[in-house]
Amino acid sequence: MKLEIEGVNSLGQGLSHLPDGRVVFCTGALPGETVVARLTMEKKAYAVAEIETVAVPHPQRVKPSCRWYETCGGCQLQHASRSLQLELKSLIVEDSLRRLGGFDLPEKISCLPSPVQWGYRNKASFPVRRTASGETTGFFKMGTHDIVPIETCPLVCDQAAQLYGTLRGLVQDGGFSAYDEKTGRGWLRHIVVRASTYGSGLLALLVVTSKPDQEGMASLRDLWRYLQSRQPALSGLALSINPSRGNRIIGDETVPVAGTDRVHECLGPFRLEYDGTSFFQVNTAQAARLFDYASSLVPDGSRTLELYCGVGSLTAFLARKSRAVTAAEIWPPAVEMARKNMSGNNLTNVELRLSPAEKLPSDPFEGQDCLVVDPPRTGCDGEMLARLAGTSIKSIVYVSCNPATLARDAARLQSAGYQLVTSSVRAFDMFPQTSHVETVALLSKLNTEHHLDIEIGEDELSEIDFSKDATYGEIKKYVLDKYGLKVSSLYIAQIKRKHGLIERENYNFSKKENQRVPNCPEEKEKAIEDALEHFGMI
């Protein structure tokens, strides 16, 4: 059948409609194209199609550079030119703000290109699995946990790619007991490689299921010597212990093997350091530009509160603009490194707090002028948003890695008196060749032309919905109304866990050993995923 491609969704899939009005998602199709496709899945509200031929290609369609592009799930837009990728990412942000947030955007949102299109990633995580043909490593095939055994990735910087290649060879030769997701057996789960872009440091982090004994540590030190003989720039080897059965990569305990566990990086005018387990933007050059713009939205001399500060990358830029910065982070090693980073850059106006955003006590919110947030993909915590209505905070700078949750949170903040300054919204191409996009936006408590000072009483405040996510009941109702399907809380929990939305132990799981848990049927899985996307949770 022929499909006229009308646009793209946030996953980079082409969008079209069937004659009966259902939307159809077509991977690899670009807006304006006519494709001949076959349906691979049909549901009540949507369908999925696979391209057979491109009858009328987009003038900016290009040949993908990576030979694993068609099967690997890492990239979604290699078949689009650089300029078209930027245009599509702008459209993804605009669509989220209009459709999910209800915002009127009088101007187009520009997307700032990355200075580097290939080899920009300073970090990559490669799952290791046991298959019928032996141990292998690579990336997951799109939409599955099947390994595509790639030899290298053109998005990863040279040093990290070479280190992966060496470790990959050892895996392929049976040098490790690879993890089996179905049985939970095996030792090596992931290979994580990290490299500095403008500073120094090259780390190998092996994510394993258990801490090795003395004999095992001796073997790992032999591995260290072998890796250094192949790549003298290697500065550290460590283990991350993760015995859990979920999708989380990094475990709670890190065991050094040899060398240092730190990477030293130059980010704009600042020299920072981080370890193998801490969050750090993977595109160093573009991160400096994003942080520079985000900090420019903070009024000079502000008293600034920053949440989700990590190792202090953005904090350093904020300290340069602010009278004082209070920065909070939940991960203890990151707070420790943030303190060292502030001291190393002689930034004495920063106070660091070890606390999750939603549990931060009231005093850091008091007397602040500006709030800066850079939350995970799930967005800001609802309880934290609810606290802003009664504070002195006049403006919010929101750094987002998920346009859908940015739109959701910005809409909720309107109820607390904050308006989205649409002219401030900028998209940043942090991840070229993929559909992912970072966004920076300013929300102001006062209209720049007309404003009224009002007070919100407790009765009115109690009527405002600041819930972070849809409840299980809301998800069940959405699926029942739209698809006519009844889904259990267990099925919803499974799909949320699949997408990384459940971070705590699920109380629905049986405590019995070897308990058989029914897997969510594919039809219900797709319906639940549609509900999660509808509510801006994925």
The CATH architecture of the domain at 123-267 is: Beta Barrel
Assign the CATH topology of the domain at 123-267.
Answer: OB fold (Dihydrolipoamide Acetyltransferase, E2P)
Shape category? globular
Structural class: alpha/beta
Query: What is the residue-averaged pLDDT?
Result: 89
Low-confidence stretches: 447-468, 502-517
What summary fits the major beta sheet? 8 strands, mixed
Residue share in helix: 25-40%
CATH C-level of the domain at 123-267: Mainly Beta
Strand order of the largest sheet: 7-23-24-22-21-18-19-20
- Span from first to last CA? 30 Å
How many helical stretches? 12
| Counted beta strands | 24
Instruction: Report the β-strand fraction as a percent range.
Output: 25-35%
Radius of gyration from CA coordinates: 24 Å
Give the secondary structure arrangement, pairings included.
Layout: E1 2-4, E2 7-8, E3 14-17, E4 23-27, E5 34-42, E6 46-56, H1 82-100, E7 111-112, E8 123-131, E9 134-137, E10 139-140, E11 147-148, H2 158-172, E12 188-195, E13 202-208, H3 214-230, E14 236-241, E15 253-259, E16 262-267, E17 270-275, H4 284-296, E18 303-307, H5 313-321, E19 324-329, H6 332-344, E20 350-354, E21 370-373, H7 382-386, E22 395-400, H8 403-414, E23 419-428, E24 438-444, H9 458-462, H10 472-483, H11 489-498, H12 522-534
Parallel strand pairs: 4-6, 7-23, 13-14, 18-19, 18-21, 19-20, 21-22
Antiparallel strand pairs: 1-5, 2-3, 3-4, 5-6, 8-9, 8-12, 10-11, 12-13, 14-15, 16-17, 22-24, 23-24
Helix pairs in contact: 1-8, 4-5, 10-12, 11-12
Structure commentary:
It is a single chain. This protein is α/β, with parallel strands linked by helices and 538 residues long. It has twelve helices and 24 strands. The strands form five sheets. The protein has an eight-stranded mixed β-sheet with strand order 7-23-24-22-21-18-19-20, sandwiched between helices. Strands 1-5-6-4-3-2 form a six-stranded mixed β-sheet. β21 (370-373), α7 (382-386) and β22 (395-400) form a beta-alpha-beta unit. The model is unreliable at 447-468 and 502-517 (pLDDT under 50).
